Amino acid sequence: MTDLAALIAQPGANDVAWEDPNLPGRTIWLRSARPKRCTPDTPVVFVHHGVGRNGGDYRDYWLPLVDEADVLVVAPEFPDAGFPKADWYNFGNLRQADGAPNRRAEWTYNIDERVFALMQAQSVTARQRYGVFGHSAGSQFVHRMLSLGFCGKVHAAVAANAGTYAMPDLVEPWPLGFAGTDLDEDGLRAMLAFRLTVMAGTADIDTSSPNFPKEPGAMRQGDTRFARAHGYVAQARSQAEAFGMACAWTIIDVEGVGHDGGRMSAAAAPILSAALHA
Length: 278
Hints:
Layout: E1 12-19, E2 27-34, E3 44-48, H1 55-62, H2 66-69, E4 72-77, H3 85-88, H4 111-121, E5 130-135, H5 137-147, E6 154-160, H6 185-192, E7 196-201, H7 216-220, H8 225-243, E8 250-254, H9 261-277
Parallel strand pairs: 3-4, 3-5, 5-6, 6-7, 7-8
Antiparallel strand pairs: 1-2, 2-4
C-alpha cells in the first residue's frame, strides 16, 4: 500500500506516485503543498489541473497560499499517457472509445474520495470532509464530478474558468448535459442544492487558444469562457426556479484576470479556507 504520509513529509512540496486499484497500470502523481504547521486537523483541498496535465504547477501555485489559508493541498496529476484526452480526465472515463459504459468504479471522478479515504486510514488526516478546486479542464472535472454525485465528502468547492459545462439539463447529451448518464431529477435537485462556487475571470475572453472549445455545442454555451460561466449559473437558477427550489450556487467575477491558474488559485484560497474553517 502506498504510504500517503509522504504527502506531509516536509513543509512545502511533496510528491507521491499512486495507482488506483480500479485503474491498474495507470499512475497518478499526488503533488502536495504542506503548510509549515500541519496536523491531522488541517483541512484538505484537492486541486485539479488544466489540460496541460501539470499538477506540479498547480501545486506550486498554492505553495505561497497554504500557510495563510491553513490548508493541506493535494493536486492529483493525471498523466496523458495513462489518462488520454478529455474522455479520461474532463469527462471522467464514463465511457469507452466505442461508447460502451464503464463501471462507476472505473470513473476518474472517484479519485478524490479514494485518496481521502486512504489519508484517513493512514491518519494523515482526521477530517471528515474536504474542499476541491479546479481550473480550466480541472474546473470541467470538478463540476461534472460533483454533479454526478461525488460530493458526499465535499465541504466546499470552487470551479474556475471552465471551457465547457455539463449544463443542469437532463435532455442535453453528455458531456454538455446529462442525457445518457445515470443522473435523474433527484440527483439534479441535489446538485442545485449543493453550495458550488463558480469563478469567472473577467478577462478570460480570449478565444484564439487551440484549447478553447469551439465545437457547435460549446459555442451554444457562450462566446467566451467568461460568458459560459455566467450562462451555466443562469441556467442552474432557472432550473431551480422550475423545480420550486432555491439554487445554492454562487458566481464570483475575478476582476482583470484571464485564463490564469495561479491568479485564480489565489482568488479561491481565502474562499475555501473560510468555508473549511467555519
